[in-house]
Amino acid sequence: MLGDWPVSPQAMDFPPWLATLDAALSGSSPDGLPRLDGRNAERFYRV
Length: 47
Description:
Blueprint: H1 14-24, H2 32-45
């Protein structure tokens, strides 16, 4: 999640950005959201 976070503060703070992301993903499947929240990164980086 938040792969662009180092750049995002130039546009907005974290809480509004997260609210925007949540709204954009509100129709996503429950199985897909954890992948966006870091599981893909955990798997890719094997952490």
